[in-house]
Design a protein that fits this description.
Blueprint: E1 2-5, H1 7-24, H2 37-58, E2 59-62
Helix pairs in contact: 1-2
Amino acid sequence: MKVALNIPYFLGAIVAFVLAYMTMTESIDKFIHFAGELNALAFCATAIFMGVICLFGSFERIKPIK
């Protein structure tokens, strides 16, 4: 079984995980000012979810030609 890497989805996953990491370390507060802690938590959860979905979409199985 061969697997191909779909580059745009993989880059989207990397960006989403970087945003989630920056939210967890509070370094994104220099760029985005959240109204409360629950807003930051929801943003972080959404970024993690988007990263996981993009990561799943970035791997594609190549079917052999018969």
